[in-house]
Amino acid sequence: MLQFPQPLTRKSYDLATSIHEKIQDLAQTVRQHLQLNQRQNQPLIEHIFKRGNLKSALFSARIEGNSLTLQEADQIELITNLTETQREVVNLMQVHNELTKLPSIISLDHILTLHKQVMHGLQTHPGKLRTSSSAIFDQLGNITYLTPEPAETKIMLGELIRQYNTKHIQPVDALVNLAQCHYYFEKIHPFADGNGRVGRLLMHWQLHQIDYLPTQLPLEEFIDTNRSEYYFLLEKNTRQVDGFVLFVMQAIEHALHQSLSGIKQTTIAFKRTETLKSNPAKRTKLNKLIPRQQEIYQIILDHPYTSLDFIHRRFWHISKRTLAYDIIKLVKLDLITKHGQTRGTRYSAT
To answer: N or C, which end of the chain is more exposed by having fewer CB within 10 Å?
Structure first.
């Protein structure tokens, strides 16, 4: 029977401690920015957390092969009849929004409920442990891992839940345990489908138990970008999972960097919006724009000296000719300024 991972080697533990020190410093900076903004603008804070939850949900689904883009996910709340691809992301968004309500001591019932919510509308009987053995295959169809028998699964889940609820004196040990628990959960593979998504939600639940970390960290974006390494490290059948632990800690560090950058950009955008609200003439011009043109204007506000190619990457389903027309209208309304000619043309807010 597969056992819980072994402690890190001394070399790996020292490296994990070094990464953890960076995580603590970054987390303190992020919390300071959040506290400052909270005193100034509560809607801004709500937007930051909503954006973080959206990215966590989207990229967690993308890790499993979901094809939805961030731009499409931004509009998902406006859709009534969801496709399966959209349903996967919506389910995860809803669970992320409620994750802080879970108690500090987790049980098997909580894990089953998470699975039920994640797989709602996607599986006939969500929230049930698998009743037969299964296998994990690589892209070529070769078996890379045989999952434990159902009887073993329940025993292993008992050990896993004990590890989830273990309290650690050293903060770095909590992050080491978080990564080891995720590895062990994926090896147990307790459900017929949805194990990756539920396992990453449980990582977020563990992050919520660490006081010095902000309550939303979209670490799934890093995992999706480095998906091959993530699966390579997970596929190893070993109790020595130092590489996977360090990978997860790097994902947390990267998510903090991204969060800090996002907070700064969002703060600037909100300040610009407040300035526009106090300018009746500019507000009148903006009201003449269709939603896509307003979004293009916001992109140029957020990214000075933006090119048409950059904007087209955000609106890949719209022709460049149409986007060029939108930009010309913004120039004529004196909302943006054109710099240069032909391929070197750039745009900035007036």
So the answer is: N
